Amino acid sequence: MTDPVRSLDARYYIDPQVFEIERAGLLARTWQFGCHRSELVETGCYTTFEIAGESLFAIRGRDDKIRVFYNVCQHRAHQLVSGSGTTRVVVCPYHAWTYELTGELRAGPNIKAVDGFDKSTVCLNEVRVEEFLGFVFVNLDPDAKPMEDWFPRARAELTEWVPNWAHLKPLEWVEIPENCNWKVSVENYSECYHCSLNHPTFASGVVKPETYDIQPQGQCLRHTTECQSLDRMTYDIQSGFTHFDEYSSWFLWPMFSFQVYPGNVLNTYHWRAISATQVILWRGWYSLDGEDNEAVRKLAQQDRATTVEEDIHLVESVQRGLGSRGYRPGPLVVDPKGGVNSEHPVMHLQRWMREAIDVDQQT
Questions:
Q1: What is the pTM of this model?
Q2: 197 vs 195: CA distance, rounded Å
Q3: Mean of the pLDDT values across residues 313-336?
Q4: Peptide bond preceding 329: is omega within 30 degrees of 0, i.e. cis?
Q5: From CA 282, how far away is CA 258, in angstroms rounded?
Q6: With contact defined as beta carbons under 8 Å apart, do 98 and 107 qualify?
Q7: SS3 of 49, please?
Q8: Of the candidates 45, 109, 118, the residue with the CA atom closest to the CA atom of residue 81
Q9: Percent of the chain predicted with pLDDT > 90
Q10: What is the pLDDT of residues 20-48, one digit of tens each?
């Protein structure tokens, strides 16, 4: 007999100091979604985003390469760009120091008057970047291992499930604020122990809960299930691709997930932590060239009105409960056989969370 695995202490979810430790450590050295390549179609296209409290921007160079830089001028620290746009060169609004699309300093007013100044030594600070099926991911850790090491086979599997990924663009991104810690929301997403009771539309119209399972694949949590009777689907799933009659999901630790609905419909979850008790969830849906697709829009509307709305109430109630003096971390229901009524994926998540935070507290 061994003692059951218990959930994390409440402080991991409610303590602002823990959140600051995560932002400086865990969130800064993991692969995080930045933008979609469709936002960077032409040379000089750029877009800004924030990772781990840092303002960054992605830009497409003349060599067609997408680079990501810290959004700060190397002269006197003014931010370089905001929002999205297109530019021939990057010009700082403060003193007009000008950078090439590769980040190298091109010019600055009167810099030739400075004895010994060598502009070749000045360059914007670049960030690790990888494209993953058209999604641009960044890692602030220059020594981070590539995404394939973190999430083995995920790219290849997703290519099988979404063979037309190169032609997909965002149809809509819905921004959903949740008053909870990001880990509460991620844990809720990463188990289906609660699905039959709380998600009747998802459990009766998309998946067969009794076949639902989630297993670790590196630092990816791989969701698999059989689908409900497909003759009850509200849209035509005959895509012409394999896996058209399946549902599958790939959660990439710590804050992004790809889902594929029957008919090879790609959709995504993306979490961005705002504070210890606030997270914003971006729910993304994609179509060929981003063109309007009635079936996908109906799916998105149904999802927002059912599963997403149901989850908001669940995670916000959990967050309130974590702040109760009456709460003591309970045992996780970890079934050695796995399956829908097992919280083994939460066990893996909480181990990754605890290890990352504890390591950062010691450094």
A1: 0.94
A2: 5
A3: 96
A4: no
A5: 12
A6: yes
A7: strand
A8: 45
A9: 81
A10: 999 999 999 999 999 999 999 999 999 99
